[in-house]
């Protein structure tokens, strides 16, 4: 009988099971207690012998329970230690290093160059009033640029997502309250209902504006040639084509050469060899008036640079949409360079 009990204890797997077995055999209502109670039914001699035996059994069972409990505790501790072991020879995890989006890097570079030329950064809202986005810039209500085809309108009357950064020209002139010079560069997001390899509905421009006495087209060309040289390298070629914008007169567009001649030879990204990067011109007298300046005494130039075009030209990207799909496998190519 005792051997069977000890054997049962031996085969217990955990502390909970051990408790159950303890109750069964030596608990207050357990088997041994019952046996002790039953002793009173026996004749004296037999009772003495059986009593001694039961006491020995109790001692043996209790000892066995204690040994088993200690062993189970040790076992649990061993398992815990194995689980918590740190293998110091494992290689570390290499952290992924973040990088700035190529558009961000190009935008900052343009800002740096313009700030070195003395332009201050200025900002305007992306949800703009029709007056700042159109009327103040001489774009009258029947102008095609105001067509549903081009602009995103907002559910609130007289508001649009700005179609260019040019409204910041007016806001900056107003903020200067007639002081000279007004010399600002306004980077930011702009919106048009376009979507193809070279146009996306949300794009970025940097507006430049200089108002002072005696500013003319020659100042504009000089500034833009300097800007192009700083952005693309001194060997870049530029050309100005005459153009039309309601808010400048005369108006031009600037192209830069597309043949990239560097360490890896020459690469041409467009058939004509030229890519357009900005619109510009001499600020229209009406626009000066709308900004609170007198065209009889001051003049100025303005330009609107397409950051996407500059980025494409610098990095040799031929589909603009790739820049905004944010596939890291694509963007990570531009970690260095540019
Ligand atoms: N706002 C014009 C555009 O988005 C660019 C421009 C800016 C032209 C300033 C002239 C002067 O195309």
UniProtKB/TrEMBL annotation:
| Location of this chain's protein in the cell | Cytoplasm
Entries under SUPFAM superfamilies matching the protein: Class II aaRS and biotin synthetases, tRNA-binding arm
The UniProt annotation places Mg(2+) binding at 249
Q: Which InterPro entries match?
A: aa-tRNA-synth_II, aa-tRNA-synth_II/BPL/LPL, Phe-tRNA-synth_IIc_asu, Phe-tRNA_ligase_II_N, Phe_tRNA_ligase_alpha1_bac, Phenylalanyl-tRNA_Synthase, tRNA-bd_arm
* Cofactor(s) the protein needs: Mg(2+)
Enzymatic reactions = tRNA(Phe) + L-phenylalanine + ATP = L-phenylalanyl-tRNA(Phe) + AMP + diphosphate + H(+)
Which CDD domains does the entry mention? PheRS_alpha_core (cd00496)
| Cross-referenced PROSITE patterns | AA_TRNA_LIGASE_II
**Pfam families linked to this entry:** Phe_tRNA-synt_N, tRNA-synt_2d
The question of whether Aminoacyl-tRNA synthetase is a record keyword is answered with yes
Record-level Gene Ontology MF annotations:
ATP binding; catalytic activity, acting on a protein; magnesium ion binding; phenylalanine-tRNA ligase activity; transferase activity; tRNA binding
- The Enzyme Commission number assigned here is 6.1.1.20
Residue limits of the Aminoacyl-transfer RNA synthetases class-II family profile domain? 104-338
Q: How does the cofactor attach, per the note?
A: Binds 2 magnesium ions per tetramer.
**Annotated GO biological process:** phenylalanyl-tRNA aminoacylation
| Entry keyword set | Aminoacyl-tRNA synthetase, ATP-binding, Cytoplasm, Ligase, Magnesium, Metal-binding, Nucleotide-binding, Protein biosynthesis
Entry-linked PANTHER family: PHENYLALANINE--TRNA LIGASE, MITOCHONDRIAL, PHENYLALANYL-TRNA SYNTHETASE
Family per UniProt? Belongs to the class-II aminoacyl-tRNA synthetase family. Phe-tRNA synthetase alpha subunit type 1 subfamily.
How would you summarize the oligomeric state and partners of this protein?
Tetramer of two alpha and two beta subunits.
Q: What is this protein called?
A: Phenylalanine--tRNA ligase alpha subunit
* Species, as recorded: Sulfobacillus acidophilus (strain ATCC 700253 / DSM 10332 / NAL)
């Amino acid at each position: 009988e005792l051997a069977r009990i000890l054997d049962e204890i031996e085969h217990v797997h955990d502390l909970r099971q051990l408790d159950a077995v303890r109750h069964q055999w030596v608990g207050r209502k357990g088997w041994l207690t019952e046996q002790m109670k039953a002793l009173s039914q026996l004749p004296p001699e037999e009772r003495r012998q059986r009593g001694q035996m039961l006491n020995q059994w109790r001692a043996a069972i209790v000892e066995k329970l204690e040994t088993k409990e200690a062993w189970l505790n040790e076992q649990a501790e061993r398992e815990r230690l194995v689980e918590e072991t740190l293998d110091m020879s494992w290689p570390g995890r290499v952290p992924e290093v973040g990088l700035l989006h190529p558009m961000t890097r190009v935008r900052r570079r343009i800002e740096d160059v313009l700030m070195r030329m003395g332009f201050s950064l200025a900002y305007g809202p992306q949800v703009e009033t029709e007056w700042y986005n159109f009327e103040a810039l001489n774009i009258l209500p029947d102008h095609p640029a105001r067509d549903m085809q081009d602009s995103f309108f907002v559910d609130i009357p007289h508001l649009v997502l700005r179609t260019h950064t040019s409204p910041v020209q007016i806001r900056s002139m107003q903020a200067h309250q007639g002081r000279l010079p007004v010399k600002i560069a306004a980077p930011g997001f702009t919106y048009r209902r376009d979507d193809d390899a070279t146009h996306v509905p949300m794009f970025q421009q940097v507006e430049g504006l200089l108002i002072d006495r005696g500013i003319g087209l020659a100042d504009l060309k000089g500034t833009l040639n300097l800007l192009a040289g700083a952005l693309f390298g001194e060997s870049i070629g530029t050309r100005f084509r005459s153009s039309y914008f309601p808010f400048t007169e005369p108006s031009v567009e600037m192209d830069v050469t597309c043949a990239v001649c560097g360490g890896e030879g020459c690469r041409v990204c467009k058939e004509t060899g030229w890519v357009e990067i900005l619109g510009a011109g001499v600020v229209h007298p009406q626009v000066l008036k709308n900004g609170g300046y007198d065209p009889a005494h001051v003049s100025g130039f303005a330009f609107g640079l397409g950051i996407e075009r500059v980025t494409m030209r610098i990095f040799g990207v031929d589909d603009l949409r790739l820049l905004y799909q944010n596939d890291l496998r694509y963007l990570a190519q531009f970690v260095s360079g540019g």
